[in-house]
Amino acid sequence: MCIWCTQMIAGAIGIGIILHAGNHLVCDFPRLIHSTPEKFLLVASDFNNIKPTYISFLCGIEGVTGIAMVILMIIAFTLATRYFRRNLVKLPSPFNRLTGFNAFWYSHHLFAVVYVLLLIHGTFLFLVHRWYQKTTWMYVSVPLFLYTAERSLRKCRSEQYAVKILRVSVLPGNVFSLMMAKPNGFKYKSGQYIFLQCPSISTFEWHPFSITSAPGDDYLSVHIRTVGDWTQELKRVLTDVNASACAIGRAKFRELGNIDPNGLPRLLVDGPYGAPAQDYQNYDVLLFVGLGIGATPFISILRDLLNNTKTEEYVVQTPVLVDTNTETTTSDDSLTSIASSSTASSVKKKSQKAKRAHFYWVTREPGSFEWFKGVMDEVAEMDHKGQIEMHNYLTSVYEEGDARSTLITMIQALSHAKHGVDILSGTKVRTHFARPNWREVFNKIANKHPYSTIGVFYCGMPVLAKELKKLSQELTYQTSTRFEFHKEYF
Q1: Closest to 70 in 3D by CA, of 28, 22, 31
Q2: Does the structure show a pLDDT above 60 at 379?
Q3: Preceding amide of 94 cis, omega within 30
Q4: CB-hemisphere CA count at 13 Å for 453?
Q5: Higher local confidence (pLDDT), 261 or 91
Q6: What superkingdom does the record give (predicted)?
Q7: 287 CA to centre of own chain
Q8: Which among 83, 290, 304, 390 could disulfide-bond with 294, CB atoms 3.0 to 4.6 Å apart, if both were Cys?
Q9: Which phi and psi (to 5°) does residue 265 adopt?
Q10: Are 459 and 468 contacting, i.e. CB atoms less than 8 angstroms apart?
Q11: Can you give the pLDDT at residue 418?
């Protein structure tokens, strides 16, 4: 579910709480307390013939459970806000544990207590005595059943998809990559993501990561940036096999049953789950824009496009063995016809999957280009038809043409022309400085692909998403090219 939908639901719940609680506290309770003896006599049997006070309402089962639910939901809502969830609020110890992803994650599970309190709250209703009129359990049972079923399914599926770690690579920029053996029967599309759980760290936490391997690869890979305590702990237990205790204080590495025979911690996989980028095959041309680690969803797609290109070239170059003997039988003719048509259909099928793609990767650190160096080199070597255009942009250097970057620009151009290797990225893809002129990029693509449908896929911070969406709408009306914008945030 998207963040916007979650925020809308949270807002609706907040409005419902205010209306429900406010109606009782401001209207119902005062009316009963200040009612005339004649009017109170109509409902006196529900209160043991004793007129209640405001304090008795609040201290009763209904009042205590209602107030407790409101407090728990306020805690969950507060810790889920951006300032607490992203550690933007700096609190002194030990209150600093109230910030960060863990506080958000565990506080959200207070809903289990809220559900129990809600059942109790709905059982002790005023003025209602018959069980079938107390309908709270009906509304609670359905979402509770769905949640329990989803958690059970995730548990069963994750146990089935316990993966074997093949390789761990520590990369520049606080990033490391995991290469895992693909579980039997595990199928996914490029652009999708998976959830990972490491029982050595926490048996409750699942964290999402975009898949960077292609569906045709015989392995499963993800690239993880260490921005939180869980990812820091995962990196530690994967790279420091001699460690016996968690520096953060949550995991106990080498717990029995949580490590494999090779000494690495168990890793469970749940998924795959859909993402906007998985619909890339619906478009004539693709425009990928990734900021920093936001490039990960598109690496899998680039690998898939490259694999399709290799397969197409192999099928085209493989000769069809046709019997040239003039005295062929009917059976031989049929086999030859079938072989020829099968090859033609294979070529046609692969050609339909072949897409033209423009990939713009914008990052601040030169070391980031090491993350997908192999992919960029492979694309540059194998993409003879110019199917995939790679563009790297480094924002920590002044833009090209600026006097402060003229020297490095000249050296870079000479090195790339002479050796075919960029001195900054170490790949065959040349690095540009500063941020791209996105209007110029869109105009260039529109002129290059008239009357085409361009799928614009963005992954990064929300600020640039607004600009790209606006350009997609403007260029769709101003040119013959249609741009359809999709986004996901990291």
Answers
A1: 22
A2: yes
A3: yes
A4: 8
A5: 91
A6: Eukaryota
A7: 19
A8: 290
A9: -70, 155
A10: no
A11: 53
- Number of Cβ within 10 Å of residue 209's Cβ equals 21
Is pLDDT above 50 for 339?
no
**What's the average model confidence in pLDDT over 439-450?**
90
* Predicted pLDDT at 341: 38
- Residue 217 has phi, psi (to 5 degrees) of -75, 155
Q: How many CB atoms lie within 10 A of CB 217?
A: 16
Question: What predicted TM-score, i.e. pTM, was given to this entire model?
Answer: 0.67
Write the CB contacts of 144 (distance below 8 Å, at least 6 apart in sequence).
115
Using one digit for the tens of pLDDT, what is the confidence trace for 85-99? 777 777 777 777 777
List the Cα angle 299/192/99 in 5-degree steps.
95
Nearest to 211 by CA among 196, 226, 201: 196
User: With contact defined as beta carbons under 8 Å apart, do 174 and 166 qualify?
Assistant: no
Cα–Cα distance measured from residue 434 to residue 478, given in angstroms and rounded to the nearest whole number: 27
Q: Report whether pLDDT(411) > 70.
A: no
Query: Mind spelling out the 3-state secondary structure of the chain?
Result: CCHHHHHHHHHHHHHHHHHHHHHHHHHHHHHHHCCCHHHHCCCHHHHCCCCCCHHHHHHCHHHHHHHHHHHHHHHHHHHHCHHHHCCCCCCCCCHHHHCCHHHHHHHHCCHHHHHHHHHHHHHCCCCCCCHHHCCHHHHHHHHHHHHHHHHHHHHHHHHHCEECEEEEEEECCCEEEEEEECCCCCCCCCCCEEEEECCCCCCCCCEEEEECCCCCCCEEEEEEECCCHHHHHHHHHHHCCCCCCCCCCCCCCCCCCCECCCCCECEEEEEEECCHHHHHHHCCEEEEEEEHHHHHHHHHHHHHHHHHHHHHHHHHHCCCCCCCCCCCCHHHHHHHHHHHHHHHHHHHHHHHHCCEEEEEEEECCHHHHHCCHHHHHHHHHHCCCCCEEEEEEECCCCCCCCHHHHHHHHHHHHHHHHHCCCCCCCCCCCEEECCCCHHHHHHHHHHHCCCCEEEEEEEECHHHHHHHHHHHHHHHHHCCCEEEEEEEEC
Q: List, in sequence order, every residue forming a beta bridge with 210; answer none if it has no partner.
A: 193
Q: At residue 131, what is the residue type?
A: W
Tell me the mean pLDDT in the region 366-386: 68
Read off the pLDDT of each residue in 104-119 and give the average, rounded to a whole number. 86
| Least confident residue range of 216-220, 382-386, 460-464 | 382-386
Residue 205: closest CA among 247, 175, 174, 250: 250
User: Based on C-alpha coordinates, what's the Rg of the chain?
Assistant: 30
**What local confidence, expressed as pLDDT, does residue 412 receive?**
58
What is the model's pLDDT at position 362?
85
Q: What is the total residue count of the chain?
A: 490
